[in-house]
Amino acid sequence: MCNSDGDCRPLGFLLGLPFAFLALLVSVVGLVVWIVGLLLTCICPCCLCITVIVECALELVKAPLHVMEWCTSQIPC
């Protein structure tokens, strides 16, 4: 995986793959929570707590990208 600086860190990418797979499973759960939360928000838009849950679920969906970025940044070479 290459950074914007032109640094390629294939070792970090390979080491991060198992963690990214686990994060992908978590993101599927986040996707389901996000869809259910959006439906509940459409039914009752006055529930602020559901909006917070939807925002947290959206972060779960982005989890694999955050995991891969973190893993590649930990490898110095």
Question: How would you explain this protein's 3D organization?
Answer:
- This protein is mainly alpha-helical.
- The protein has a domain at 18-66.
- It has helices spanning 10-43, 48-61, 63-74.
- Helix 1 runs antiparallel to helix 2 (48-61) and helix 1 runs antiparallel to helix 3 (63-74).
- The longest helix is centred in the middle third of the chain and has 34 residues, at 10-43.
- The radius of gyration is 16 Å and the shape is elongated.
How can the largest sheet be summarized?
A: none
Summed up, the helix count is 3
Enumerate the spans where pLDDT stays under 50 for 5 or more consecutive residues: none
Roughly how much helix do the residues carry, as a percent range? over 70%
Rg, nearest Å? 16 Å
Structure class: mainly alpha
β content, as a range?
A: under 5%
What shape does the CA trace take?
A: elongated
The secondary-structure element order is HHH
Oligomer: single chain
Task: Please count the beta strands (DSSP E, at least 2 residues each).
Answer: 0
Q: Cα distance, first to last residue?
A: 12 Å
Mean pLDDT: 76
